[in-house]
Amino acid sequence: MEGEAKGLMAIWADVDPEAQFEFEKWHNCEHMADRVTIPGFLLGFRYQGIGATPYSLMAYETVDPSVLESEPYLRSKNNPTPWTRELLTRFRHTERLIYRLAASLGQKPVTQAPYLYSLKFDPEGEEGANAAEWLREGVLGRIAAAPGIGRARLYRIDEKASSVVTAEQKIYGDGPALKRRFLILAEMGSASWPKDELWRDLCGQEKAPSVQARPAVPAIENVDEGRYWLRFVLQTPG
C-alpha cells in the first residue's frame, strides 16, 4: 500500500440515454479536468457498465480522504458551472461515496486497467465494524488470486466525508439509503469472467449459504457488483 492513493471518491450513475453523448463531452472536457487540478487529487477515471450494471462508474483517487473535505474541493463542488448543472439533472440512480484504502494486493498496472470489477458489500453481523483484516485475507485475497485479476483493492467508507452535502449533490439527489461500508475494485486484463466456484460465491452469483458453508471465507451481505470497461482516464498535471 505504500505510495498508493489512500482516498477514493466513487460515483455510480445512470445517464438519460439522449444525454449520454453530451455527458461524455462534459465529463472528458470540463469536469474531470477541473477535478484533477485540485490539490491532493492524483487521478480521475470513468468506466462504462457491462450488462445490467449502472451506465457509468466515475472515480477519483486522492492522497487521502481529507482532500475530499478540503476548501478547494468544496469550493468547486459548491459552484457548479452551467454545463455541470445541466448534465447533473440527467443523472439517475446516483450513488456517491468516499472511501479510505484499507488493503491492496497485486501490482499497480503500467497503464489504467481496461476492465474493472466493483463489489460493494457489508460484512455479516455486528463484527463488521472491525472487519478490515479478515476481509483482506478472506475476500480480497481470494479475488486477487482469481484468474485474470491484477491488482485488487479494499476500501472502507469514510462516513464523515461521504455525508458532506454540496450544491452539486442537491442537483442529482441523495442516492440510495443503503450505503454499503466496503468496496473492492479489482483490475482485469480482459472481459473474461473467472469461472471457479469460489469466485461465484464471492461475487454473489450463488446464495449466501454457499459462502457461509466455508469457514475460511467471511460471509458478506448487501452485495452489489458490476463489471466495467474503460472509457476515459486523466492524471493530475505534472
Question: What would the keywords be for this entry?
Answer:
alpha+beta, 8 strands, 8 helices, 238 residues, Alpha-Beta Plaits
Please tell me about this protein's structure.
The structure is a single chain. This protein has a single domain, classed as 2-Layer Sandwich (Alpha-Beta Plaits). Helices cover 27% and strands 34% of the residues. Strand 2 and strand 3 form a beta hairpin. It is globular and about 45 Å long. The protein has 238 residues and is α+β, with helices and mostly antiparallel strands. The two termini are 22 Å apart. The protein has an eight-stranded antiparallel beta barrel. The relative contact order is 0.22.
Class per helix and strand makeup:
alpha+beta
- Quickly name the level 1 CATH class: Alpha Beta
DSSP summary: helix tally? 8
Largest sheet: 8 strands, antiparallel, barrel
SSE ordering: EHEEHHEEHEHHEHHE
- Strand content bin: 25-35%
On the 0-100 scale, what is the average pLDDT? 86
Structure summary, number of beta strands: 8
Strand order in space, largest sheet? 1-3-2-8-5-7-6-4
User: Into which percent range does the helicity of residues fall?
Assistant: 25-40%
N- to C-terminal distance = 22 Å
Please compute the radius of gyration using only Cα atoms. 17 Å
Low-pLDDT runs: 205-216
- CATH level-two architecture: 2-Layer Sandwich
CATH topology: Alpha-Beta Plaits
